[in-house]
Amino acid sequence: MSAVGGPALPALGGRGPSYRVRVADALRAALIAGELRPGEVYSAPALAARFGVSATPVREALLDLAKEGLVDAVPNKGYRVTAVSERRLDEFTHVRALIEIPTTAALAATADPTALAALRPVADEIVAAAAAGDLIAYIDADQRFHLGLLALAGNAHLVEVVRDLRSRSRLYGLTALAEQGRLRASAEEHLELLDALLARDTEAVGEVMSRHLGHVRGLWAAP
Q1: Which terminus of the chain has a lower count of CB atoms within 10 Å, N or C?
Q2: What residue spans of 34-172 are helical by DSSP H?
Q3: Where is the signal peptide (predicted)?
């Protein structure tokens, strides 16, 4: 593990194949939120102790992340978090905007209100995580919300493209937002977005999504 202070990882005690998936998801969230810092080397046993699981599912999850290019193996030491350039972050956000803004706006006219309402508890999770300053829970709920929303468009490939782009993004500024008490205001945009969708207000949906994605490169990604 890096000598720098360890990440605030959630306890994931238990066993079974599902824990590999849960650990991998939590690691991705930690990477995005900046809890695992670029250039730092982390060992599977040390991360396993923080998750409250054996080293095996953590090691397997790290192998998955290495295949995705999110970490690099360092022989006899662990895995180093890969850095993401400013230019690459700009490219990721640009592609996401091209996909997510029009797709989400179109849902104002097509999405089943019941399906939209089912996402409100997830939006509430985002707000609760923001209030608690739990960045990993925030990222996890945020991803479930947006991917669940995009899934209503009926294009599974589109959802996977956005999932990959989100995994490769970094939101280092989340820590500062949480410390300043400003993360909750951003979290509440998810509720604002749902209200606009349920009101069938396409223009308002587009405005909220544009503003929301603007945070990704405007403030949230600032190192």
Answers
A1: C
A2: 44-51, 55-67, 86-110, 113-117, 120-132, 135-151, 156-168
A3: none
pLDDT tens figures, 81-103: 998 888 888 899 899 999 999 99
Phi, then psi, of 107 in degrees rounded to 5: -65, -20
Q: Give the span between the Cα atoms of 125 and 152, in whole angstroms.
A: 20
The answer to whether the Cα torsion of 63, 65, 71, 72 is positive or negative is positive
CA 217 vs CA 39, 91, 102, 182: distances in Å: 21, 10, 19, 16
> What type of residue is 128?
A
Which two three-digit tokens encode residue 79? Answer: 């895995």
Q: Which two tokens stand for residue 61?
A: 């999850």
The mean pLDDT of 51-73, rounded to a whole number, is 88
Express each pLDDT in 96-148 by its tens digit.
Answer: 999 999 999 999 999 999 999 999 999 999 999 999 888 888 988 999 999 99
3-state secondary structure of 222: coil
